[in-house]
Predict the 3D structure of the following.
Amino acid sequence: MTIIETKKLKKKFDGVKAVNDLSFKIEKGKISGIIGPNGSGKTTLINLLTGIIPIDSGTVIIEGTEKLVKIKPSQVSFYGITRTFQDVRIFEQMTVLDNILVVLTERQVLKALFERHKDYYLKHAEEVLRKVDLWDKKTQLAATLSYGQRKLLEIGRALAMKAEIYFFDEPFAGLFPEMVKIISNIMKELKRSNKSIILIEHNIGLIRQLSDYVFVMDEGEILAEGVPEEVLRKKEVIEAYLGD
Amino acid sequence: MEYLIHLAILFAIYAILGISLNLVVGYTGLLSITHAAFYGIGAYATAILLTYFGVNFFISVVLGIIIAVVISFLIGLVLSKFSGDYYALGSFGFNIIIFSIFLNWRGLTNGALGIAGIPKPEIFGVHFFSNTMFLIIAFIFLAVVYLAARFIVRSSFGRVLKAIREDEKTIQVFGYNALYYKLAIFVISAGMAAVSGSLFASYITYVDPSTFNLMESVFILVIIILGGLANLRGSILGALFLVLLPEILRFVGLPFDIAAQMRQVIYGIIIILLMLYRPQGLIGEYKL
């Protein structure tokens, strides 16, 4: 079953085509890898799908019914979508625990004003922080975490959303093997729960190991797609991305 | 003793202004330079209602809050679309507009001459003529504003404000409409500032536009930067320090006119030193 489909998605920056007439389908319950050289439009694609930057033209279809031509960032979570960022974006001057609690609580202004800590929020936050091995640091300011721990916190925040679709933008970049293992296990667990993952990654070994399906992007277009073993052997993919 | 009571009343008025502005600047990260406008709206509301219409002081406080809330809602609708430097510049512009209204709408505000003879508070036949009685009222209002602000910052709403301060775009991806939150806290803060204005008008018994100019907004900003951003007790500390500072300068032996000028210089030096060495203020939890 297709969970996200794009039709002729377009984005230009100062005349440069960052995403060019891009049409693709993401299957539910799979890990879909997106690879491609720097500047090929991978992150722009995620930013378009999560409303961080506006779409110039084209359509996004979610779960076959919800057609969107304009996406507001604040609507994204209501479609069951969450994400991490290539350049880690945590709430630095808030505690580790608050970084998780803030995405669990009431969205409506008036209700949020009269809402206090609730046990089930704390319990859920603890569960998430233990999963990313940060429970011991819950009272620390997020700014004091190491780079890897920040990445884990960002992934924990995405997990706390209990979303249906997860966009992970280079989650393994610059991490120690131990942390890579934690994140790989989280992704495998999400897949087992029938969640859909879109994984942007440069580490081909991890793409091979985790992805069910791979898209190769180049110059804002899909250059190739298919199961990892086949796609990564294609001549045009090797030429454009993998080199000799 | 009267002198100390006078200082304590001024402290309560500025502490309310500091606490309310801290909600916007310290907790939400919006550098607002328009707080004196809402302070002035509260002051003029009380001055006009008490002097011209004989309305009870406490009713005038409520009406002042309502007027400030309505005006701040309209201003906030525009400002909430901005962030960072643009927000500061936009708020700066609104302070100038409101000040010009105080100065030029003579039929309502009596222009530069201001409104004199504003009565002292009275409720159920009890008149608060003495400064001691007024001090009690001022501290009751300060306590109410402090507790309300504490309630806000400890709620889920307060946590979202901090997240907006940290990264507005990111928190939106998690389903929060930052515009509504920014607007709500701006309006709440303006309502609180109006309370200070009402207290000021009734205590001094005179208002004129010069009290609510841009420098006053900067002064309130200095209170919270000095005391500590995103810390309510910091606002109280900042107000205490800056209300006492001119008195300290006077005791040092500086002539009155020089002391007044020195005060402005010292405010400037305080901001510069804080930005250099302690951007979070004395007990703040957030760095600008």
Summary: The first strand of chain B starts at residue 115 and ends at 116. The mean pLDDT of chain B is 93.
